[in-house]
Specification:
globular, 12 helices, single chain, 0% strand, mainly alpha, 60% helix
């Protein structure tokens, strides 16, 4: 999901594509679990508390991001006011659910069987967040958990952009002025090199997203590859069914680093990337 970790309204088509994938993934999961009988209560709680909310969280996050881009112009996206407004709105919601939020963040488990079991198993009254849910594929607090964690992610997203806007605007010369370097290979090679650098830990990835790394790489070598990031990644995932970096450049990294590049292809049914 790192493609969407920085403000870029031009990626709305990719957002729509990913939202559709997630929606289909959630529908498939619901269809499967509707017929499935959990072996234990612990397995049931694990599914409704840990597995399904992670997928729904990404759906809520990307849907909110898409609505945000559609609501605001490019000019507004360069102003801090809209980000502050969104942060206040999200925090207001989370404050209204502070009892449940505290329960989740403190690691408590004593109410798990009440919150994270099938509605059909409990026979309890529906909540605001399960009013229209299917009894066999939903629990009372699963969607609320996904929504809160998605809102946490959105708050972090908007806060990072606010911090970027606060940085002083300097008249820096482009890197190419001092270093007139030019990329001679094709764009796919450049994209794969960026992925190798990012996922091997060769750069301090805690301070940037893969999209931001690609942008800086492009500025250095006078090549625009941010638009190719999503297309190349999606093609490789479609062809292989995994999220393995198929890059000859990765062979130059230590074996331990290359192992970290290969992610679990079954993680959340392959829909969270």
């Amino acid at each position: 999901m790192e493609f969407f970790e920085c403000v870029n309204p031009d990626m709305t088509p990719q957002l729509k594509d990913k939202i559709a994938q997630l929606a289909q993934g959630i529908a498939d999961m619901n269809a499967c679990v509707r017929k499935y009988r959990f072996a234990t209560v612990e397995e049931e709680v694990l599914y409704f508390k840990e597995i399904k909310p992670r997928l729904v969280k990404e759906y809520v996050f990307l849907s909110a991001l898409k609505a945000f881009y559609e609501k605001h112009s490019h000019f507004e996206l360069q102003r801090s006011k809209i980000y502050k407004k969104e942060i206040n709105r999200l925090l207001y919601f989370m404050n209204g659910e502070k009892e449940f939020y505290r329960y989740i963040r403190s690691g408590q488990t004593h109410n798990d069987e009440r919150y994270f079991r099938r509605l059909s198993e409990l026979g309890t009254e529906r909540t605001l967040y399960s009013l229209n849910d299917d009894l066999e594929s939903s629990c009372s607090h699963g969607f609320l958990l996904a929504k809160i964690t998605a809102y946490e992610k959105l708050v972090g997203f908007y806060t990072r952009q606010l911090n970027r806007l606060k940085l002083p605007q300097t008249s820096e010369l482009p890197l190419t002025t001092a270093l007139p370097l030019e990329w001679k290979a094709n764009k796919v090679d450049a994209v794969e090199l960026v992925y190798a650098l990012y996922y091997s830990g060769a750069v301090n990835t805690e301070k940037c997203t893969v999209h931001e790394l690609a942008k800086q790489f492009g500025e250095l070598f006078q090549i625009q590859i941010t638009e190719q990031l999503y297309r190349v990644h999606r093609y490789k995932t479609t062809q292989t069914g995994t999220r393995t970096l198929p890059c000859k450049t990765a062979e130059s990294f230590p074996q331990q680093s290359r192992r970290r590049i290969h992610l679990n292809p079954k993680l959340l049914l392959g829909f969270v990337e």
